[in-house]
Every structure is written in C-alpha cells, then in structure tokens.
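Teaching note: in complex prediction, the entire set of molecules is handled at once rather than each chain in isolation. The prompt given to students was simply: 'Predict the structure of this complex.' The entities are:
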Amino acid sequence: MGKVVSIANQKGGVGKTTTAINLSACISALEKKVLVIDIDPQANTTSGLGLNKKEIKENNEPTIYDLLLTDEEDIEDYSPYIRKTKLKYLDVIPSESDLAGAEIELASVFGREMKLKIHIDRLKDIYDYIFIDCPPSLGLLTVNSFVASDSVLIPIQTEYFALEGLADLLNTIKIIQKRLNKKLTIEGILLTMFDSRVKLAKQVANEIKEWFGDKVYNTIIPKNVRLAEAPSHGKPIILYDILSTGAESYMKLAKEFLRRNRDY
Amino acid sequence: MGKVVSIANQKGGVGKTTTAINLSACISALEKKVLVIDIDPQANTTSGLGLNKKEIKENNEPTIYDLLLTDEEDIEDYSPYIRKTKLKYLDVIPSESDLAGAEIELASVFGREMKLKIHIDRLKDIYDYIFIDCPPSLGLLTVNSFVASDSVLIPIQTEYFALEGLADLLNTIKIIQKRLNKKLTIEGILLTMFDSRVKLAKQVANEIKEWFGDKVYNTIIPKNVRLAEAPSHGKPIILYDILSTGAESYMKLAKEFLRRNRDY
Ligand SMILES: Nc1ncnc2c1ncn2[C@@H]1O[C@H](COP(=O)(O)OP(=O)(O)OP(=O)(O)O)[C@@H](O)[C@H]1O
Ligand SMILES: Nc1ncnc2c1ncn2[C@@H]1O[C@H](COP(=O)(O)OP(=O)(O)OP(=O)(O)O)[C@@H](O)[C@H]1O
Ligand SMILES: [Mg+2]
Ligand SMILES: [Mg+2]
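The expected output is the structure of the full assembly:
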C-alpha cells in the first residue's frame, strides 16, 4: 500500500519542484516504485522530468487537469494519464497551464476537495510512494493534495519570508486534519538552498530546528548551481551530474526519508 | 492622475515582493506620492514595510481582503484601509492570510474581475504611482490586479524555470488585454538576483534580452544578502542599509522607471 506525500509550501521558490523531482528520482534509484504528480499549473516537474509541455498541449494529451474534472467511475484505466521517465521505477502524471483555471471551475462542484483523492486511492496499490508537487498557494489545488495525502513534506528556504509563512501553512494543515483528512501528518521539514557562509541562513535554520525539533531532516540541501541547470536538460540531478553536491544531498535525503518510514 | 502598475510573475520566489517594497520606497524618496497594495495572502509586502500582521488580524483591522468584498458605493472614505509607513510619501494597503479564500469566494460573484479596479479608480487621483504586489499565480487575484492596472512590471530570476513560465504570463496578459482591459501594457522586464559569476544566469539573461529587447530594464538587480535581511527588520533597503548594492540598484531602477515614464 503506497504512501502519499504532498510537497508543499505556499511561499514561492523554496525548492518544492526541485525536491519533488530529485527526491522521487533518488528513491526510485533505490528500487522503490514511485509516482510523482504535478498539480502546479506551471508544470515545472513535468518539464524538469523531460516531458514536452508543448507536445502535451498540441496533441491534447491527458494530464492531471483532465483527471480532476473526471469522476472515478468514468475511468477504467489510468495508463493514458501516467508517463514513463528516463528512470525505470519513476512515473509521472503531468500538469498543464489550463490547470490555472481549475480552482475556479472546481469552486462550485460537489466534493471539490476530494477530486484528487478519488483517483489516488486507486493508484496507491501500484506504487510504493506517490509524491505530489504543489503550487505556491493554499488554494483548492493544494487542499486537494492534502486531502489525498498521508503526510506533507515542507521544503523551506533559510530566509525571512519563508519562515514567516510557516504559521499559515501549519494552520491550513490543522484545518484539513480536523475537517477533511484526520490522518494527515507532517512528514518532515527540509532546509533547502542552504549557504553556510550566510549569517541569515544559519539564524533561520536554528529557529526552524528549535520550532520543529526532530521533524527537521538531518540532511540539508546546499545551494548548488547544478540543481538549477538540470531542469533545462529535462533530467533529475542523478542523471545530469551524479557527482555534484546536489545529487549527493538528495541521495542522502532519500535514504533518510526511507529510514524514517522503516523502509531502508 | 496616478499610474497603476502590477508587479507580477506566477513563478514563485523571483523578487516580486522585494521589488514592490524597494522600487516604491525609492520612488517615494524621489518625492513622488506612492501607494503599494499587497494582494498576496502571504502578506510579505505588509510585513516587509513594518506593519504587524498579528495585530492586524487580532484587532480585525481592514485590509485589501475587506476592500475586495465591499462595493464601492458602500465606501465613503478609504483612509481606514491605507496605512502610513516609515517613509513620508509611501502608503500601503495591507493584506492578510484570509485573502487565500477570496479566490473561491469571488468565483461566483458578478463582476469578479473588477473588484479591485472599482476601488483603485477612486484612489488614482491621490497618488502619482500605485504598485500592486501579486501572488505567485495567475488566478483571480492576479487577474483583478491586471484589470485595475495600466501596465505590468515582470521581475524575473535568471534561472530556467523562471524563463519557462514567461510564455504563460504573456498569454494571460494578452487575454486580459483582449477581454477586460484594452490599455494594459508591459511596463518592463526586470532581471533580479543576478549573479554574474554563474554561467546559467548569463545565458538566461541573454535569452531574455533577445526576446524582449528594450523592454528589459538596463538596471539589473544583483544578488545581495542585505535585501534578504531587510524584511526581518520591517524596513525597505534604503532605510536598512543605504550603502548596499541592493539599495544602489533599486535607486537606479527607480530613476530608470521614472525616465521611461518621462517623469524624471
Ligand atoms: N539547492 C539548490 N541550489 C541551487 N538552486 C536551486 C536549489 N533548489 C532549487 N534551486 C533553483 O531555485 C529556483 C526555485 O526552485 P523551485 O522551482 O524548485 O522552487 P518551487 O518552490 O518549486 O517554486 P514555485 O513556488 O514557483 O513552485 C529554481 O530555479 C531552481 O532550479
Ligand atoms: N536581489 C536579491 N538578492 C538576495 N536576495 C533576494 C533578492 N531579491 C529577493 N531576495 C530574497 O529572495 C526571496 C524571494 O524573494 P521575494 O519574496 O521578493 O520573491 P517573490 O516573487 O515575491 O516570492 P513569492 O512568489 O513567494 O511572492 C526572499 O527571501 C527575498 O528576501
Ligand atoms: Mg514549483
Ligand atoms: Mg511575494
């Protein structure tokens, strides 16, 4: 029975997509079956894993947008929605820019918060782990992801605005736990883009560790330009530059993630 | 008659808030009357200019959220919504986290795209410039900002995902121009967090200049940690560290912005 993890933080540019792509790639390299779902209209996980966004749009290929607007009774087979990647044990359900309109389209639909969960519950048996890359907001798409998930992994940049937004994120998680998904927990807090030479980064990191204790991963992702270059080649870091500190730190994170789930 | 400029890019973490705070602060230092409106539920511009988000929430003080849900006939006087800052010619209309629910609340309201414009049109005569800090999405809040604006200033980080998102942003601006606001133009493209030692940054910068020509500001904002420190002190960079490269570059941008508007 697969575990479903949302990768979320409404603060923009904190490393959600970079973590979704590279943590799922590294875990699949450890021979676990992984599905990553892109529920951000920017579709950065989609292109970062080598899929062609233009082709998906021109050929009208099915994406997460179509899935959210379809009832589960109407789907026999999910394979048209699931794409292969350059890694054997990693699949992806892509996103597209039309998804930006989904929040308004879903706003008045019955059971609008459950539109993702009804499909994920049918995919859980095929994968060991399902990761969902969320958009930078606490709107209906992120709420759908939280309702469908077992836990939330929170990437956080060690800067002031990122720290400030945590209270709102934790609030939203509490509300979802109370009303829509009792079992939702925090999977962990991941410090990203960390530059140990910057005083502010160390201060913010210390504050987060004080606040969250052992929920904070021991693995810290350093600033590493190879991580920013890899998406333009459509590859996760372990295929773009396996010797980089970026690849090393995400591999370390994958092992820590599995150990915390007693699966390594 | 004041000019209204949206500061927008659906890509997260590209410097929208940092630009909204510091460009408006620098222009007000050149003795133009400036209003900055925070329409992002994260309310980073609100706290970055020294307002206390907790107090606003506890005392139930009026914010942009209340304004969007109120008709213009019901407002005699806008002063309860407008706050003073540490700079004489800079005012701010704050945001709050409840705004995250506004997109769903407004979705079925008549004239939902015009909810901001009806108020801004009554404020235009009091200010020389009105800047609007947008959230990282192309949803109803950003659409409201585009409908209320004369132009859009696009901060962009010199990285791959930021470049990839530009096509969707330009598409949205075109749709708004066609259907809701014929006069909307692009104010300019601002390169932010630029590190001249990074090859990727130079490559992306060159691509943007080829694409946008003289729409790209000559002023480039360098990576400068003082810009990331200033918000935790609730001050724009010119009050936090006037001698920093961050302060220098935003002051240069303010003059270029005014020159392009034949106002300097
Ligand atoms: N550890 C790192 N070192 C260097 N660059 C990084 C690192 N992590 C992410 N980046 C780069 O920083 C930018 C922001 O990261 P990313 O897009 O993953 O964040 P995000 O939270 O998904 O953003 P959004 O809020 O827009 O969805 C990207 O250009 C990415 O390539
Ligand atoms: N030129 C710069 N040099 C160094 N740090 C910067 C610079 N500009 C912005 N930052 C920092 O980078 C982070 C992202 O910037 P900012 O919050 O302004 O982006 P944004 O586009 O408003 O993000 P969001 O999409 O979440 O609204 C912040 O922590 C900010 O302090
Ligand atoms: Mg992302
Ligand atoms: Mg912002």
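Point out the following to students. The mean pLDDT of chain B is 96. Chain B is about 40% helix and 15% strand.
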